[in-house]
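Side project, low priority. Logging it here so it doesn't get lost.
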Amino acid sequence: MTSLHADEAFLGHYHLSHDPFAPRVPGFKFFPAQRKPVLGQLHHLARYSQLLLVVTGPLGSGKTLLRQALVASTNKQSVQSVVVSARGAGDAAGVLRQVAQALDVANAEPNAILKQVVQLGLTGQEVYLLVDDAEQLDESALEALLALAAGTPEGRPHVFLFGESSLIADLEQISGDQELFHVIELQPYEEEETREYLAQRLEGAGAGIELFSAAQISDIHESSDGWPGNINQVARDAMIEAMIASRSAVKRPKMGFTMPKKHVLAISAVVVVAVAAAWLIPGRNKAPTTTGAPTEQAQLPLGKPTPNVEFANSGQPTNLPMVGQPVMRGPLAEEAGGISEGDDGVPVEGSSATPPTVTTTAPPAGVPAGTPATPVAPAAPVAPVAKPTPAPTVATAKPAAPVAKPAPAPAPAAKPAEKPAATVAKAGAAGSSWYSSQPTGNFVVQILGTSSEANAQAFVKEQGGQYRYFKKVLNGKPLYVITYGSFPSRAAADSAIKALPAKVQAGKPWPRTVASVQQELAATR
């Protein structure tokens, strides 16, 4: 799969008719656990109570689904439902404008709206006014809604507010000692209710609860704290994680040795040549002494150049040792200082990769190493020939010193190899510390989760900007979660989602609090 956002691949892998954990699904069925009693209570209070009704719960607790169920379960012949969103229009003018438009009232004021409510009551119709995201209402909007809920002796609408618990403090400040509203607080699902909820969602998409094991269901319940919205997200992440793992397992056998055949042949040739060179080079000690100029280099037999073999991803060809290449050995090497040889007698890289400027040979058999060459026979004609012999021996020791300088060269070569590992470790630590440094009330946008840290790093590197990732544990395995930005409010995070690239939006990113991320990081540690 080339993109983690490919919904078609997700649906095809599990043979689903639609995403079972999307916010809006075809053929929606209201899940009764922990919510049916609340639904009945709302209908009862709407009929007999004169108070404004408030339904509270954290993000993902099912407030919007409960509001949908309330509208769906009312008698359309006797109830006109007006649904208002406080998102982006949290002041009195914005809320009253939406209500007036729905009731076909020209003047968006409380008195004009109440007159229309009374007129509808005379025809046998009640008005339900339902406000989503009510925690975003300001003081003026709350006062206007309390005035509508109080109504007139002739009639009043039934006002329902669905929002987070911060809404209660604002209402209490406005109400003072008066009892103007009634609060219903939603409760999370128990583990068995979580299992039934998952089964209903999967059944609606053409699958069954057998997609999850008992251990996975327990993990989903624990990670979501039993809130429906969180259950949807965690369950979907778990299914995508399992899909990626299964596809990786199928592809893994195909990812064997894929080096091109020509590279294999080149490496084989290099090995053969190196072995031959290691075996034959010691025999060069028996070659006759050369007494040329110190700056001249010895030539290879037959004038053949040193072969160059190119490896994949290598910028420079590598010179291979050949038979006949002069090697510095014995006392001369020791006197030069710092020149070392490999175990097979071939000079290691950096010591004699470049042929020495002066060559020498091993002394005749039976003469200790380091003894100046002397005439073998005492015959008189041979004596004059032996005199120049000690001169090259002394001269060869001095020029050998510059050859020792390249010896430290291999040491710095190991340093760059250490930098990437340090960089990666630093990046991982920086990601966790960044989340820990953010205010707990801020929001981030969760993009996706993947089991491969390399995939997460590649995605963040490709997108750049404000994309980051952190590590958590899901079902006992690491999951790398990619997020975007840091926003002071949910509204700002929602606006940022709309501005994301289309392929990122296809994965249905969602806002979540920094506090929830910090909790997962703490649990991972």
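Brief comment: The longest strand covers residues 477-487.
Revisit when time allows.
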